[in-house]
């Protein structure tokens, strides 16, 4: 950066400053790096909080952010979402039950359990099993009781259960 020095005679001489303005030309300095780091950790930090962390004025922080956005260093802010959480599912467990029927047609057998409150979904499928049920019960003991109840129905040949450990979709 060039500065003009005035001496007593009014003649100006040009001197080189050892400090280079690092904000010109898209260069980032340590303050910019710290600002970006703070925003990576929490993009919702207020200008006041950022200014305090950086020991700058709010206006200076705002100007730096505008420059970083203009220079495409910061291209956006995002919300990072946690897994969707249904408080009703905190209690109990989910399981998928595989059912094989011993009679055809199987619709009379399905009618016997179709409206049981533990059953959240029913799927008639092809393959080694005839149907899959998704169930939500209060405990492993309640799951055992449900499997026994289903297995005891006339027309049900077998029931196998698999407890749901985690769902990435809900």
Q: How would you explain this protein's 3D organization?
A:
The chain is of the alpha+beta class and 170 residues long. It folds into 2 domains: 25-81, Arc Repressor Mutant, subunit A; 90-163, Lrp/AsnC effector binding domain/regulation of amino acid metabolism (RAM) domain (Alpha-Beta Plaits), CATH 3.30.70.920. It is built from 5 helices and 6 strands; from the N terminus they run ββαααβαββαβ. The chain has helices at residues 30-41, 47-54, 58-70, 107-113, 140-151, and strands at residues 2-6, 12-16, 93-101, 119-124, 131-137, 156-163. The strands form 2 sheets. It has a 4-stranded antiparallel β-sheet, with helices on one face. Strand 1 and strand 2 (12-16) form a beta hairpin. It is rod-shaped.
How would you classify the helix and strand content by structural class? Answer: alpha+beta
Query: Which CATH architecture of the largest domain?
Result: 2-Layer Sandwich
Tell me the name of the CATH homologous superfamily of the largest domain.
Lrp/AsnC effector binding domain/regulation of amino acid metabolism (RAM) domain
How far apart, in Å, are the first and last alpha carbons?
57 Å
Strand content: 15-25%
CATH T-level topology of the largest domain? Alpha-Beta Plaits
């Amino acid at each position: 950066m060039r500065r003009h020095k005035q001496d007593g005679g009014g003649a100006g001489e040009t001197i080189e400053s050892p400090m280079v303005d690092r904000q010109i030309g898209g260069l980032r300095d340590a303050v910019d790096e710290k600002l970006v780091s703070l925003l990576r950790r929490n993009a919702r930090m207020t200008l006041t909080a950022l200014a305090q962390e950086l020991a700058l004025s709010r206006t200076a922080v705002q100007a730096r952010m505008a420059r970083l956005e203009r220079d495409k260093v910061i291209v956006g802010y995002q919300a990072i979402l946690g897994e969707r959480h249904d408080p009703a599912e905190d209690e109990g467990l989910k399981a998928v039950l595989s059912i094989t029927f011993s009679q055809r047609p199987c619709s009379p057998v399905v009618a016997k359990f179709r409206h049981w409150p533990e059953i959240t979904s029913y799927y008639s499928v092809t393959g080694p099993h005839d149907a899959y049920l998704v169930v939500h019960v209060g405990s492993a003991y309640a799951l055992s009781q449900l499997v026994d109840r289903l297995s005891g129905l006339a027309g049900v040949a077998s029931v196998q259960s698999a407890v749901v450990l985690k769902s990435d979709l809900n």
